[in-house]
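lol so apparently i was supposed to do this last week
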Amino acid sequence: MTKSDMVGFGWKQKPAAYAKVYDHLDETYHHFYSKSAARLCQLARLQPGQTVIDLGCGTGTSTAVFWKAISPSGHLFAIDPSEAMLSCAREKLSQNKRIQWMCEDGYNILSLCQQLNLLGKIDCVLSSWTYYYLYEDREQLHRDIHTLLRPGGKWAFNITTCTSPIECGGETYNQFSRIYDFTLNRVLREKGYQPDAGRTTYDPQFHSPEPNRIMLSRVGFASVETEAWPLPLSPSEAHAFLLEGFVRHGAKPVFSKTLESLSIPKRVQLLEETLSSCSNELNATGEVPHILNVWAVK
Ligand SMILES: C[S@@+](CC[C@H](N)C(=O)[O-])C[C@H]1O[C@@H](n2cnc3c(N)ncnc32)[C@H](O)[C@@H]1O
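anyway here it is w/ S-adenosylmethionine bound
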């Protein structure tokens, strides 16, 4: 089984109807996508007039935020392999002729820059809520981005594990997820399914920023900084948006072997039951879901 099978979300095949569902998540959940993108702009210190790339632009939520930071004279190249997501983005931002849309896999970023004669001229590459899907060879991606940036250029992205524990700066975040896992196992047991032995993850690179820090330094970035950043969501909202925006539309619940073996409607039903049963307890922890931001300077 390839890693792509494990994530199994099939972005390239997603229909236009899904792009519309995705596009509403930002508004429904306190603009957390826009705010995440705005935080990346701050960390990368985007300036008006800069030439930047939005890697995995989706329906344009991050693109609009990045554009605001470099307008009116900047140039933005927005890359996404999903025609449905990209069409939605183009429709929303069609009046802006300084944004160039490219229906491409992010792994082609270096050859795209070569074709456009932009090698060594890019001020910043930003990628919001997309790095999870770039699983084939992250070190090569970092190396390519290092090559296409100008000296002093920046690469800023987020690692969006907001419902599993993460470590950063000696602190552990998202501990509320243990309550959720415990409740899910109770629900599974009550319904006659095998409970999970423990939270499973397909990608240990997401437990902390350290593996990425090491890779980024190895490919030549002069400085790498990281932070845990609080989302404008409660713990129950973080679980709800993943369920409504992703699991309901076919994303594999990679944290549970038992759920992975069940049909999508069954997974959704069990997760709905889990969430309604532990929402109050999750929120009573007073915890705030965090993601990791990483920014590196060439
Ligand atoms: C969760 S969305 C994030 C979209 C946008 N950045 C935002 O903040 O709303 C993830 C996006 O990554 C894109 N994506 C998936 N695989 C990709 C790849 N290999 N290269 C570039 N983008 C990819 C998907 O098509 C999708 O639009």
